[in-house]
């Protein structure tokens, strides 16, 4: 199974969707690393994720109902708490002694930057943090998410988001113009990130430059990649905190 063959790629947080896609009143199904997962929101707003397969007869729990912070299987009503522990088997009546060994796999979840993130790692305790979406809700900045379906793999998308030379061809006339000039770039690497800083203060981002940089201040352009599937491209103008930042992360196949 893909989850078992993923090596170190599995040991990161993955975005399961926008916060607003996880309502308080119904479970949500996602498939990540070929694992079917079900998410639901408790009364306190916290989101839980467990395997979307009932321990009894493998029914998809995502077709069930939320009841008192627990998830009730649609087939025979086995009920799971926020740790994936079965807490009720209706056909057993009050005889609960069989329940403790009935549970489904549980996955850590966190909510940050307007996204729901799930930890798919082999270690059940997360060893890192989800990608930090910059300037979300910071005063003076506006931000929004755009969800787009691409018929391609994540590696090609990450390369595209950080690929400067294609802009003068694919986005000809509205992003950059073709120029034959030599640009210096500084490349910094860590074990799970790459940061490139371009030394080109006169660079511009085309038609929108007049809008986001009306005074034509010198621009600092940086491209960042963060494992496993996150990119961040910054265009910051002058010494100000004014700028334009584009981030991307992967969502998964049954999202759209
Ligand atoms: S399959 Fe879920 S309760 Fe039977």
3D architecture notes:
It is a single chain. This protein has 3 helices and 16 strands. It has 256 residues and is mostly beta strands. The chain folds into 2 domains: 7-119, 3-layer Sandwich (Rieske Iron-sulfur Protein), CATH 2.102.10; 154-248, no CATH class. The strands form 4 sheets. It has a 5-stranded antiparallel β-sheet with strand order 12-13-14-15-16, with no helix packed on it. Strand 12 and strand 13 form a beta hairpin. The radius of gyration is 23 Å and the shape is elongated. The structure holds FE2/S2 (inorganic) cluster.
Please sum up the structure shown.
This protein has 2 domains: 7-119, Rieske [2Fe-2S] iron-sulphur domain (Rieske Iron-sulfur Protein, 3-layer Sandwich); 154-248, no CATH class. Helices cover 6% and strands 32% of the residues. The chain has helices spanning 154-161, 167-170, 209-212, and strands at residues 13-18, 28-32, 35-41, 47-51, 65-67, 70-72, 79-80, 86-88, 106-107, 109-112, 115-119, 184-190, 193-199, 219-226, 230-237, 243-248.
Largest sheet: 5 strands, antiparallel
- The helix tally amounts to 3
What topology, given as strand order, has the largest sheet? Answer: 12-13-14-15-16
Topology order in helix (H) and strand (E) letters: EEEEEEEEEEEHHEEHEEE
The CATH architecture classification of the largest domain is 3-layer Sandwich
- Annotation, overall tally of beta strands: 16
Strand content: 25-35%
Instruction: Indicate the CATH class of the largest domain.
Output: Mainly Beta
Q: Give start-end ranges of low-pLDDT stretches.
A: none
């Amino acid at each position: 199974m893909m989850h078992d063959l993923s090596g170190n790629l599995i040991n990161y947080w993955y975005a399961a969707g926008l916060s607003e896609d996880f309502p308080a009143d119904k479970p949500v199904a996602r498939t990540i690393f070929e694992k079917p997962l079900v998410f639901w929101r408790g009364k306190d707003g916290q989101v839980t994720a467990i395997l979307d397969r009932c321990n009894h007869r493998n029914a998809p729990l995502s077709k069930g109902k939320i009841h008192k912070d627990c998830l009730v299987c649609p087939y025979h009503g086995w009920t799971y708490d926020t740790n994936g522990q079965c807490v009720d088997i209706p056909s057993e009546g009050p005889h609960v002694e069989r329940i403790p060994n009935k549970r489904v796999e549980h996955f850590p979840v966190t909510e940050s930057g307007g996204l729901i993130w799930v930890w798919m790692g082999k270690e059940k305790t997360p060893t890192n943090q989800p990608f930090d979406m910059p300037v979300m809700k910071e005063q003076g900045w506006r931000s929004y998410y755009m969800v787009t379906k691409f018929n391609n793999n994540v590696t090609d998308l990450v390369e595209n988001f950080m690929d400067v030379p294609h802009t003068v061809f694919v986005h000809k006339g509205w992003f950059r113009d073709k120029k034959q000039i030599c640009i210096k770039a500084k490349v910094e690497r860590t074990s799970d990130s790459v940061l490139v800083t371009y030394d080109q203060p006169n660079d511009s981002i085309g038609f929108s430059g007049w809008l986001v940089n009306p005074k034509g201040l010198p621009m600092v352009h940086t491209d960042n990649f963060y494992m496993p599937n996150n990119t961040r491209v910054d265009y910051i103008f002058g010494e100000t905190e004014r700028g334009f930042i584009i981030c991307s992360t992967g969502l998964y196949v049954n999202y759209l």
